[in-house]
Specification:
Structural class: alpha+beta
CATH architecture of the largest domain: 2-Layer Sandwich
Order of helices and strands: HEEHEEEEEHEHEEHEEEEHHEEEHE
Largest sheet: 5 strands, antiparallel
Radius of gyration: 19 Å
Distance between the termini: 31 Å
Helix content: 25-40%
CATH topology of the largest domain: Uridine Diphospho-n-acetylenolpyruvylglucosamine Reductase, domain 3
Bound molecules: flavin-adenine dinucleotide
CATH class of the largest domain: Alpha Beta
Length: about 300
């Protein structure tokens, strides 16, 4: 770790800062500092970075838009990398769209609409990146990324580039090995008029505004929906809507969302998550599984 900065300085297309609060990079607006926050702007730079962190056994984590993460108040001891530059570009083809792992899905969808390409509208309003979406098989409105992906290019920790073309449709589950980095993806699209695509986007926007806390500091659904019933309904039936721990609160609009009402600590959100799990277990005998991922917590499993 001592030499890390020396190595980082040598990589072109990479910028870094030290002791960066991750609260600025998560939609929950919580999370302590990362020792190093790195923005990687080319494939070559990413390959070099991976070699350095693997050779030096430096803890390493790729962050997308931080919209599915609870980062601890202590932060992350190691390197947090974000993909930018060449790794966050979008290119529209005739019936296909190519997107870097670091680009926001919303940006891909807006570009698609502009180019008269339909197929990804279901993902409108999911505030994640292509990489984060591939790692969670992001989905909504009966669609998910595995339905429309043509290929994913990824980098493994040994420094090999891989291409994946077959994806198992699993609910909120990584579509490629979870220790690999999504460099690029391509989506199957079809020609449509811009007006047609925008009309669908508008309907989705309205539906989300009605059913979810819009514009608040959240990480979307905290728990996966178990087979028995939607997690939100189970939580609501435990009487937990509006439940507060410090500045963390169960949304009154959608009980599977926890809101940071301002200045919440990650520990308050974490404790509220535990309280919800134990309440649902007690009332229904159902073990809710987290959809959001924990970063920088001592034990990264369910407790
Ligand atoms: C208001 C709101 C609404 C939401 N609605 C939905 C919804 O309808 N459907 C849904 O599925 N989700 C929803 N989410 C959750 C979230 O947006 C998705 O899970 C999203 O796919 C996460 O993407 P991200 O870029 O923010 O990833 P992050 O949260 O930054 O990271 C998630 C995981 O992906 C990994 N990762 C990120 N980028 C890469 C990469 N390039 N290579 C390898 N690994 C990577 C991270 O290491 C981490 O393990 C919602 C969230 C919010 C805040």
């Amino acid at each position: 770790m001592a030499d890390l900065e020396k190595y980082l300085k040598k990589i072109h297309d990479l910028s870094y800062e030290k002791n960066v609060p991750l609260s600025g990079y998560t939609t929950w607006r919580v999370g302590g500092p990362a020792d190093f926050f790195v923005v990687v702007k080319s494939k070559k730079a990413l390959f070099e970075l991976v070699k350095i962190v693997v050779d030096g056994s430096v803890p390493f984590f790729v962050i997308g838009n931080g919209s599915n993460l609870l980062v601890s108040d202590a932060g992350f001891r190691g390197v947090v990398a974000r993909l930018g530059g060449d790794l966050a570009k979008v290119l529209c083809g005739d019936d296909e769209i190519f997107a870097g792992g670091g680009v926001l899905l919303s940006h891909v969808i807006v570009e698609a609409a502009r180019s008269g390409l339909s197929g990804l509208e279901f993902a409108f309003g999911i505030p994640g990146t292509v990489g984060g979406g591939v790692m969670t098989n992001a989905g909504a409105f009966s669609g998910c990324l595995s339905d429309v992906l043509l290929y994913v290019r990824a980098l493994d920790l040994k420094g090999s580039e891989k291409t994946y073309e077959r994806f198992e449709k699993r609910y909120r589950h990584p579509l490629i090995p979870s220790d690999e980095i999504v460099i690029e993806a391509s989506f199957r699209m079809r020609k449509a008029s811009t007006e047609e695509v925008e009309k669908k986007l508008d309907e989705i926007r309205k539906s989300r505004k009605k059913t979810q806390p819009w514009g608040m500091a959240t990480a979307g659904s905290v728990f996966k929906n178990p087979e028995e019933a939607p997690a939100g309904r189970l939580i609501e039936e435990c009487g937990l809507k509006g439940m507060r721990l410090g500045n963390a609160k169960v949304s009154e609009i959608h009980a599977n969302f926890i809101i940071n009402t301002g200045g919440a600590r990650a520990s308050e959100i974490y404790d509220l998550i535990q309280l919800i799990r134990s309440s649902v277990m007690k009332k229904f005998g159902i073990a809710l599984e987290r959809e959001i991922q924990l970063v920088g917590f001592p034990v990264e499993g369910e407790s």
